[in-house]
Amino acid sequence: MRSKGIRISPGQAEEARRRLASLGLLDRALRIFTDGTTVVLPVTDYPAGPFQGEQCLADFAEKKMKEGYREQARVPDELKKHLPSSFDVMGTKALLKLPKELEGHEIELGEAILKANPSLDSVFVDSGVSGELRTRSVRAVAGTGETETVVVEYGLRFRLDVAKTFYSPRLASERRKVSSSILPGEKILDMFAGVGPFSLHAARKARLGHVVSLDINPYAVSYLKENAAMNNLGNVEGHMRDASGFTGEKFDRIIMNLPSRSSEFLEHAAGLLLEDGAIDYYELLEDSAVAGRKEFFHRLGLDSQSRRKVKSYSPVQGIYHFSLRKIIS
């Protein structure tokens, strides 16, 4: 399989492999190989900073996949068709959405997931996110049941609690996409920061800039501050505050990742923008209503420069990202 790689001398290969693994960039589905003079390590993406070795494209052999949890789950044959094809992994924790047909078989599923994934230590049934604090309703069905873990995302490390804070591993590429447009020195407001994934990506890209991060969940703010320190990002300032009451400063960019309620805060956010400032705005919308949203933004003094569908939420709804820019009168 043709894929990205790092070509490096044999003497440096093991150290490089360990570092790529710690950054979450080592492609574990492909085999490392040597051509006799160098070792080629498969990567999902190239490291952002300086890294020994040469970036390359190479033909890698795919690893033979081990038997998955669905093959190992001890449930009646007639129920196997209802086994979820995937589940979310956060560090050493697996979070599984359980179809009603499999109620009563949670323990069997949890044990099968742990057996098929030795790096995990706990499996939880995830009943969804709710409440103003955006917390998950989770129930341990296998393993230690401890809810705190550490997630690695494009070289950043986040400590979090799967029961007390909100984090979605499925938005990792979205967070990187947004941070790629940030310029060094930008002053940024993350209005609904959680444990800090958007904030820390932004702070790393802004370098000499500054990120102000807000959330009303005290556990999330505590983890955010810890995560900023753990990643040596001194340009992140975390506050336990409601975004609607935040005033005083003005920003080059505002990140608004609260799709179900973001429209309630948008007028206030527009007033916090510097001239020609930008907003990365997420909203849960009926697909049929997306085109008409431009007029709403314009009434608030904002121009919608681009939009894209981040994910489907239902057959007729989706979460959309809008790149908004303050209109200069």
Description:
With 329 residues, this protein is an alpha/beta fold. It folds into 3 domains: 2-59, Alpha-Beta Plaits; 69-146, Met-10+ protein-like domains (GMP Synthetase, Chain A, domain 3, 2-Layer Sandwich); 166-326, Vaccinia Virus protein VP39 (Rossmann fold), CATH 3.40.50.150. 22% of the residues lie in helices and 35% in strands. It has 8 helices and 17 strands. The protein has helices spanning 10-22, 69-72, 106-116, 172-179, 197-206, 218-230, 266-271, 293-299, and strands spanning 2-8, 33-34, 39-42, 54-59, 88-90, 93-96, 122-130, 135-143, 148-153, 156-161, 187-190, 210-215, 236-240, 251-256, 273-286, 302-314, 317-326. The protein has a 7-stranded mixed β-sheet. Strand 11, helix 5 (197-206) and strand 12 form a beta-alpha-beta unit.
SSE blueprint and pairings:
Layout: E1 2-8, H1 10-22, E2 33-34, E3 39-42, E4 54-59, H2 69-72, E5 88-90, E6 93-96, H3 106-116, E7 122-130, E8 135-143, E9 148-153, E10 156-161, H4 172-179, E11 187-190, H5 197-206, E12 210-215, H6 218-230, E13 236-240, E14 251-256, H7 266-271, E15 273-286, H8 293-299, E16 302-314, E17 317-326
Parallel strand pairs: 6-7, 11-12, 11-14, 12-13, 14-15
Antiparallel strand pairs: 1-3, 1-4, 2-3, 5-6, 7-8, 9-10, 15-17, 16-17
Shape: globular
Spatially, the strands of the biggest sheet line up as 13-12-11-14-15-17-16
Radius of gyration: 22 Å
- Report, as a whole number of angstroms, the end-to-end distance: 53 Å
Q: Could you give me the name of the CATH homologous superfamily of the largest domain?
A: Vaccinia Virus protein VP39
Helix segment tally: 8
Helix content: 10-25%
Average predicted local confidence, pLDDT = 93
